[in-house]
Amino acid sequence: MLSAFTVVLGTLILQGFTIRPLISLLRIGPDASLDEDVSRARQAMLDAALEVLAGIPGEGAAAVRAEYWATRSASVDRSRPSTAYDELRTQAITAERRLLGQWRSQGLLQDDAFHLLEDELDRAELHVASFGTTWLDS
């Protein structure tokens, strides 16, 4: 048992101390292929959505088209600075999350309801972080 532990620990330490010099020696650069694939797929998805929405009349469809165009115009760059809308939405989600936590700790909310609402807030927060600019900004 002690020998197995020593072998495992020794292997981890040896690999841990040698991996960085090995990467430098082999001149292995960062792999951007995932980011490129995601960006290309996102652009195609936006184009597909806009193509479908192009034939739909009405104010609601126009608003959704404007949101997709704003996202597409930002060239789906996630490094862009936050907008005023992003900041306001984040503050609102933080307030909702705080209230949700208070209700749970006070026993005003069952666990299942808490987790469902927490998931909704997580998705809303991801939406703000991912899409940022919406038709409300324009």
In percent terms, what proportion of residues is strand? under 5%
| Secondary-structure class | mainly alpha
List the uncertain runs.
132-138
Give the CA-based shape.
flat
Instruction: Determine the number of helices (DSSP H or I, runs of at least 4 residues).
Output: 5
What do these coordinates show?
By secondary structure, this protein is mainly alpha-helical. 76% of the residues lie in helices and 0% in strands. The chain contains five helices and no strands. The radius of gyration is 23 Å and the shape is flat.
Question: What is shown here, in short?
Answer:
By secondary structure, this protein is mostly helical. The protein contains five helices and no strands. The chain is 76% helix and 0% strand.
Keywords:
single chain; 138 residues; mainly alpha; 5 helices; disordered C terminus
Topology:
Layout: H1 2-26, H2 33-54, H3 59-73, H4 84-105, H5 111-131
Helix pairs in contact: 2-3, 4-5
